[in-house]
Amino acid sequence: MEKENLFRRITNRIRQSLELEDIITATTAEVRSLLGTDRVMIYKFHGNGSGQVIAESIYENRLPSLLGLNFPADDIPLHAREMFIKSRVRSVVNVDSRQIAQSPQHNLETGEIISEDILYRSVDPCHVEYLTAMGVKSSVVAPIIHQDALWGLLVSHHSQARDVAEYELEAMQMVVEQLSVAIAQSNLLTQARAQSEREAIINRIATLLHSLPTIVLQPALEATVAAFHGVGGRLCIRYNAFDFQHNNFKTLTECLIPGSNCLQLYVCGQQPVIPNPNIYPLLEQYSVWQEHYKSGEYDIWAIPDIYQNSNLRIVQLAFKPTKIRSLLMIPLHYRQELVGYLTIFRKEIEIETLWAGQFDPDNRQLYPRLSFDLWRESKQEQAEKWTDEEIELAGEIGKHFASAIQQYELYQQVQGFNENLEKQVHKRTLEMQKTSEQQQAVFGVINKIRKSLDIDTIFKITTKEVCQLIKADRVSVYKFAADWGGEFVGDFEAASPNWFNESKLGINTIWNDTYLQDTEGGRYRNNETFAVDDIYQMGFTPCHVDNLEQFQIHAFVLAPIFIRKQLWGLLCTYQHTGPRQWKTSEVNFMSQIAAQLGVAIQQAELLVKTQQQAEQLTQTLHELQSTQTQLIQTEKMSSLGQLVAGVAHEINNPVNFISGNLVHINEYAEDLLSMLHLYQQECPEPSAEIVERAEELDLEFLIEDLPKSLSSMQIGVDRIRQIVLSLRNFSRLDESEMKEVNIHDGIDSTLLILQHRLKAKPESPGIQIIKQYGNLPLVECYAGQLNQVFMNVLSNAIDALESYRTFKSENLLSGKITICTSIGEMNENVQSAVIRISDNGPGMPDAQKARIFDPFFTTKPVGKGTGLGLSISYQIVVEKHGGIFKCDSQPNVGTEFWIEIPIFHIT
User: Fold this and answer.
1) For 454-470, what is the mean pLDDT?
2) Cβ pair 740, 780 in contact under 8 A
3) What does the mean pLDDT of the chain come to?
4) Could you report the per-residue pLDDT of 707-733, keeping only the tens digit for each?
5) Which among 896, 891, 894 has a CA at the least distance from the CA of 846?
6) With DSSP H G I counted as helix, E B as strand and the rest as coil, what are the percentages for the chain, rounded to 5?
7) How far apart are CA 330 and CA 339, in angstroms?
8) Rg (CA), the chain
9) Would you say residue 368 has pLDDT above 60?
10) Residues near 734 by Cβ (< 8 Å), separated by ≥ 6?
11) Which string of DSSP letters, residue by residue, matches 807-833?
């Protein structure tokens, strides 16, 4: 029972909280209480084999606290950790007897779960000295396994020698298995929270970059530095880099040449100090960055320690006056063109570790440390590594910066044309207005996309808005399959007077392009947008032209959609009415929308994944709770039925023997009495000895009382038979199916079983039963289960009345239970049987009444109830019978339970 109670409490703790710290703290206290030892703790391993005590429970300070202390890897040797993992060894050490016992749970060779006796051997002397140094005489250790790896240990210490019972090992094994579940749940919660935080950061920075008509980079830079917990940051981008002579932008390398005026720098927080004089006034002008990215691979460069990287010697001098230790270089590129650098700085950190005694790494140290005094190890000027999640987040943020900078460069380009081409003022003004409108359109489409996280809605909004803004005949979304074929998943067709929509291109249309399949995405893998003004002027192969003619396509623009670095699909714009000369602004517009569409699809998929994980976790917890309740209900009903049936059977045999013999005894007595009367008539003058014997036996009284005694015995036997029949009627072991029964018989049988609790006792009066039975017909139901409901409700009423009398200290208080039955009517005019059971007990407040049918909830003291009776009754009445089970209660007035089930069930 203690082990089951421990399992239930720990399971409830896991259900109530997903916070691992709360769970392990409560677990150590529960296990120590069950085992009765001086200390129970949870020890978690680090990646390097060392570990830390993360939770403990100590009884009356009998052992010193080890909470928060770290232990080196050699305290638990590698071979011991391997045994914990491979065979799930549970270790028991008795210091006085110098014996160590191991109870394996898995076979080392086959991996099968086994159950063997505990195996004893002599414990190593150093292990004995180690435990003695901690004041421990008895130790029990069970491994905590998570994802087939040794996560930690559940340890029990006692300052005195003690024997370890098998149920204690089983209890500890049960606890570590539950802890594995709790660890998995906590990890899922942590991942979901981290993902949500990353999405919030991306949305916040994207809003700063795209919410205003003109670009504002300083707040976005500051928000990015804060998101990475940096001490400073830099944003170095191209500025006014458009070359009017060649009609293109200068490369970032050209802009970084000292003396160039096409560079703009934003800074925040701590910055490196460039020594003077220096030919490179900016950090980004040092050749180390150009050398690193000259291959054209623009991956993020995560530098955990600038002083440990030989390639950075040339710039280390600039960081010497600062506390900056780590650096994250984020290249900003658009269409494989570098437009700037975003740099995040982190300062050096100090690491403090609390060790349980100073650790000597010398391998010759074979004996354990004899002191567990606190030893603080402090490492200064340490570098903090960049995590994979941070690098991934940096990549997403870099895309937003690159997109915003590219938009800004387009804006600069329009401004430059307007300033330098005065002869075409009107033309350039129109172009600028058009570009501005398109930028506004981009912002408008992005805002509309971000208002929804439903993929179908995103496709519908995107295709409709793009189609209307650039006045195309059709805009669709094409998704690649695993073989680089694919199908269309979104479609919107604009109205055109010259096109009658005769093509069959639409949603779910499969289009497998052999060129894309052979090249695994072709040019689109390089984030290239492809615009075709006239399919007959591009030199396409005849089969390709035939395929396009089949769908009446004369011109098109295809923009790649990326999710992270993976090519997901294409944003397709088609012209069916004839050739069309696509403007550069329209192509850029399509590219920007495709990039934003990729971000929106990624966010929608992440939301769906998070929701699925949450639903899976909720479903798992619900199934666990439901299974547990059903097991308890099945066991309880089975045990009760077997007990009642057994008692009835054992009583029935001797009763049948007595009843069968009473008939003969009654006949014998009548025969003997008639013979005695005959003797008295034939011998009216008996001898003196007979008279004396008759007076001694009080013959007249015996003749008169014997028939009465036999009659009383017959009544007693009939009463016992009635009780046995009531027990059988209550258990209903022979009626597992739904049958027509008399509800009143079931209630009366339950009352007969509870009669001993209703009678008056010396210390308290009896409980009065008031029956107000209506004229109920036979009711189709599961009789045994319905009797269980009556038993639970009546038992609770009796418990409430008994506790109320004790609380009030009024022995003369008369308890009453009223049982009313009647015919009612449920929904859809279904005739029903209504049973109302009420008492004049203490009642319940609304807070308790709202939870009265919850599993494991009880108002009774600890040990007096399981909290499952009314929950099981609710399932029987509502789920099994399709009825109504409700409670009405008022404090100091009483409680009434309303049970209503259909008289007939329609299948």
Assistant:
1) 79
2) yes
3) 81
4) 877 776 776 676 666 666 656 655 554
5) 891
6) 50, 20, 30
7) 11
8) 43
9) no
10) none
11) HHT-TTPPEEEEEEEEEEEEGGGEEEE
